[in-house]
Design a protein that fits this description.
The protein is an alpha/beta fold. It is built from 17 helices and 26 strands. Strand 15 and strand 16 form a beta hairpin. Helix 8 packs antiparallel against helix 13 and helix 10 packs across helix 14. The protein is globular. It starts with a strand and ends in a 12-residue tail after the last strand. Bound molecules: zinc ion. The site of zinc ion (ZN) has 8 residues, from helix 6.
């Protein structure tokens, strides 16, 4: 693809005589694509059916003269005031029943039929107007779908839509009652019209209803996206469609959303969520988010918004250290991005995002951010061009499930137990050893992965259990952990089997009791070493499984905490507790020794190594996230392609890129 680097541009925020200057500076910097228009509905349609695309036409023409093409965002994340005045029912309702109002963004209900009609009218006109414009090469639908909708929308329209969704899923009200276990607390329904959205209740809500509601909310977003995608593909074919996602945000199933796209995109703000305990940000969490978005389509993606300055709305994070902006952008490339679009071109002087800084400062005169990124583009453009289209080899996979995430959010068991951080427990341990990770879902083909980690398989079905058995029987290595096989897919506890239900034989054990580690720490012993643990202990009775680690405290001290069971040609690890990093590292060493997964390179703490494979070559990226220089021991066969010579010292927030054409992770040795 011809595009490598871009920026998010809002010409409507700046004087017209500045546009040509911006376009020239972008070209000089190495920008070849801009995303525009995703929040400017009021400008393009100031009154119903009255369209004024002249300014946008002119901006596109000015950019095109400098060789810059554009992606246009449909602006449905910010309906204008005149629409809200005409149809105030479009504004969403929260779980307290309060309607939220105009003045921010995302003030729309995605099921509301009046809003669908406003969206249809605009998107159709927009698509028709730019259908034949060769400089408009792609669409982004809406913006960060699911953002701001954590507790939305509980309006009458969404309740109607929820009832229809339930009718489609269950057919009869009797089936709903059965699936939701409404016999408890007299919740039986005699008609669909009695069912409401799970608004605030006096006590805890029905967990089965809550799970269906979360599924419905994700499906509604998917439907809203498809509704626009259908219009765009009909009216303006031959342009790509993408969407800017947000890593581990859980409001919409990104695997399903990516099925509607030509490719996925990610918004990447390492410093946007300041974490003082980690000196600003965690490189592993950023890496995990990038890997998830690549995994959503199992192919390369774009970064549609890459941090390009200090960020914050009311409160700010740290300013990126010299080198960090380039390092963060390269991290995207290292994890599978085929293009990097920097957010935003120039820091806005107005509105909520005044301090979400861009490449240029408010006054528009280039400073450090511009100079650093210009140099970064010059240094890495040819590397990005070479690796476009490539992904990593198959090593370890993590089974990722929005259903399991929703179930854990509804009943977290321990106050500090969260699905994302639980998944990261495993991801981070692999990341510390520079082992490539792909996220896969239940319905994916698991063959080829040497290790499949399936955290928190709380909801279990016979078919999922059978698929796990088949994977292991054929030689796969599967990892299951605590609270596995507790409930069916309706969030009802399984009563016909021992824990872990349906996979007890596969694990070679039974969980006979369990202990929630509220306000206390735990420990396990593995060999002659003790390791701290947290959150939860399954009390395990082994059948054919072999204990690896034993509990070191409580009345069940000396009983198994971690086991391994041979099954067919493969094996299953069962982890009955929450591993802290020391124990997770010990576990990863076990997998390296016994499962054939391989680290790319042993590196000092904070130095990350990734790879992408293409046409028999392996491109290796080494990223130093530390504030000091680090030295790595790169093998002789790694040939540097970053014009920085042979040295293996990497400066603070610096990077190296290598290529090797044989040996490590060749196509043949990456097969199971
Ligand atoms: Zn609604």
């Amino acid at each position: 693809m011809k595009y490598l680097f871009g920026t998010d541009y809002y010409p409507e925020h700046w004087p017209r005589d500045r546009w040509a200057i911006d376009a020239r500076m972008m070209r000089e910097m190495g920008i070849s694509i801009v995303r525009m228009a995703e929040f400017s509905w009021a400008k393009w349609e100031p009154a119903e059916g009255v369209f004024h695309f002249e300014d946008l036409d002119e901006a596109i023409e000015i950019l095109a003269k400098e060789g810059i093409d554009c992606i246009l965002g449909t602006p449905t994340a910010a309906p204008p005031a005149w629409i809200i005045q005409k149809n105030p029912e479009i504004q969403p309702v929260d779980s307290h029943g309060h309607r939220l109002h105009f003045g921010g963004r995302h003030h729309d209900c995605q099921s509301n039929l009046a809003y669908r009609e406003h969206s249809r009218r605009f998107v159709t006109a927009f698509a028709r107007h730019y259908a034949d414009n060769p400089h408009v090469v792609g669409w982004q639908i809406d913006n960060e779908l699911g953002n701001s909708h954590g507790d939305l929308c509980f309006c009458p329209s969404c309740e109607d839509r929820f009832r229809q969704w339930l009718k489609d899923k269950y057919g009869t009200i009797e089936q709903v009652n059965k699936a939701w276990g409404t016999a408890f607390w007299s919740q039986d329904y005699s008609d669909f019209s009695q069912i409401t959205a799970p608004k605030d209740t006096v006590t805890g809500h029905n967990p089965s209803q809550q799970l269906d509601w979360k599924r419905f909310c994700s499906d509604l977003v998917l439907d809203f996206h498809r509704f626009q995608a259908d219009i765009l593909r009909k009216e303006a074919p031959n342009k790509f469609i993408t969407h800017n996602m947000m890593g581990f945000s859980d409001k919409v199933d990104y695997f399903k959303l990516t099925e509607q796209l030509d490719f996925a995109s990610q918004d990447q703000y390492p410093g946007g969520h300041f974490q003082p305990e980690h000196n600003g940000y965690r490189a592993d969490e950023q890496a995990g988010a990038l890997d998830l978005i690549r995994s959503a389509g199992h192919k390369p993606f774009w970064v549609m918004e890459q941090q390009s300055g200090i960020t914050g709305w009311e409160i700010l994070g740290r300013t990126p250290r010299p080198g960090q902006l380039g390092l963060w952008a390269l991290q995207g490339i290292a994890h599978g991005a085929d293009a990097i679009v920097f957010f935003r071109w120039r820091s806005c002087t107005m509105g909520t995002e005044q301090y979400w800084h861009g490449i240029l400062p408010h006054h528009g005169v280039p400073g450090r951010y511009y100079q650093e990124l210009k140099q970064f583009i010059a240094d890495t453009g040819s590397i990005l061009e070479q690796v476009q289209g490539s992904v990593p080899a198959k090593e370890a996979a993590i089974l990722f499930s929005y259903d399991q995430e929703y179930a854990m959010a509804i009943q977290p068991h321990h106050p500090d137990l969260k699905y994302q951080s639980h998944v990261m427990r495993y991801y981070s341990a692999l990341h510390r050893r520079n082992i490539p990770v792909e996220f896969v879902r239940e319905e994916d083909d698991w063959s080829g992965w040497k290790l499949l980690i399936a955290p928190f398989q709380f909801l279990m079905s016979m078919s999922l259990a059978d698929k796990m058995r088949a994977y292991v029987r054929q030689g796969g290595r599967l990892v299951l952990d605590f609270r596995c096989g507790v409930k069916d897919t309706h969030n009802i506890a399984i009563m016909t089997d021992n824990l872990p239900c349906y996979v007890s034989d596969l694990c070679g054990l039974k969980v006979v009791e369990y202990d929630c580690l509220r306000d206390t720490d735990g420990a396990v012993s593995w060999g002659n070493q003790n390791y701290p643990i947290e959150f939860w202990n399954d009390i395990i009775q082994t059948d054919t499984a072999m204990p690896l680690a034993l509990y070191a405290r409580e009345f069940y001290a000396g009983t198994p905490a971690i086991t391994v069971n041979q099954y067919g040609e493969g094996s299953v690890y069962y982890i009955g507790t929450g591993m802290k990093p020391e124990l997770a590292d010990r576990m990863v060493q076990e997998w390296i020794d016994h499962c054939g997964i391989r680290p790319l390179l042993e590196t000092p703490h904070g130095v990350e190594v990734t790879h992408r494979k293409k046409n028999g070559s392996t491109y290796i990226f080494v990223l130093n996230h530390n504030a000091e220089e680090r030295v790595i021991e790169a093998p002789e066969s790694w040939q540097p392609i970053d014009s920085k010579g042979k040295g293996t010292d990497i400066p603070a927030y610096g990077y190296r890129v290598y290529i090797l054409t044989c040996g490590l992770y060749t196509d043949t040795d990456s097969k199971l």
